[in-house]
Each structure stands twice: as C-alpha cells, then as structure tokens.
Amino acid sequence: RGRAGVDLATTTALTLVDSQVTCIPANMHGPLGHNLSALLLGTSSITKRGLFVLPGIIDADFTGCIQILVWTPNPPVYLPEGTKIGQLVPFHAAVPTATNRCREKEGFQSTSQLNIDLVMAINKAKPVEKVTFTTPEQEECTLNMLIDTSADVTIIS
C-alpha cells in the first residue's frame, strides 16, 4: 500500500506569460537510487487548474536537476515556489541497453541527435509547401505539393 508517485514541486515562483512550452526546475535531482527510472506526470489537481505537464521519462542514470515541461492554453498562470505540479512514478526499466553510456546531467534527447526535417504551421487551409527536387541528371524541379502530415514517406512519380 502507499502512494504510486513522489511529488515534484517548483523551486522558484514564476509566471507563465504565454502558451509556449516552459521548462521548470523541480525540487529533486537524479539519480533516483536503487537503479530506478521514473515516469514524470502532472498531478490531477494542477491539470484541473489549466496547467498541463508534458509526460516524460527520467532514466536511472540521470544525475542532474529534474526539469518539468509545462504548457497552459490560458496564460498568465502564476506558480508560487513549492507548488506541487508533477509526480514521479518509479519503475525498474526492463529494456536491455545496447551500450553502457552514462547520460549524467544531459537530458532531453541526450542519447541521439535531434533531427527536424520539416516544420510548418498547420491551420484550416490545406498544408501546401513549395518543394525543389534535384534529379539524377542535376536538373531542378520545383512543385507546389500538398503535404500529408501523417505520412512517413512521400512518393513522387
């Protein structure tokens, strides 16, 4: 019996002034001990107030300050120091590791390169983008293409 998670609180008072994702330092540092990893979730009470904690994973070998990613659709939102906004739900990872790499204080994509290939605003209009291709004969071809935002591959014939 007992609680499923450990509460995380803000370390300073802050005001979220826009709807951008914000990284907030928590009152806890890694490693968590006992070779535990944890799922970072928001508390139900903070979600009810209109602040959304983006879920994340804290690996067992992480050694830095735990950061909480938050977002609000209705700024401004004031958070006093010590506000409990997140919780860690610990678990033992069962995934075999390919390498013995220690992440230390790195976080947020520290295990691989961040790769963003195409970024575009999606609105009610059809997502059309001007795309330039180079053929094997080194000729350029520019087309206005409808972008399928749920496709993993685009085929051009």
Automatic annotation (TrEMBL):
Pfam families: dUTPase (PF00692). Gene3D superfamilies: 2.70.40.10. GO terms for biological process: proteolysis. InterPro entries: dUTPase-like (IPR029054), dUTPase-like_sf (IPR036157), dUTPase_trimeric (IPR033704), HERV-K_Pro_peptidase_A2 (IPR051592), Peptidase_A2_cat (IPR001995). One of its GO terms (molecular function) is aspartic-type endopeptidase activity. It comes from the Eukaryota. Residues 143-157 form the Peptidase A2 domain. CDD domains: trimeric_dUTPase. Keywords: Aspartyl protease, Hydrolase, Protease. The keyword Hydrolase applies. This is POK9 protein. It comes from Atlantisia rogersi (Inaccessible Island rail). The lineage of its organism: Eukaryota, Metazoa, Chordata, Craniata, Vertebrata.
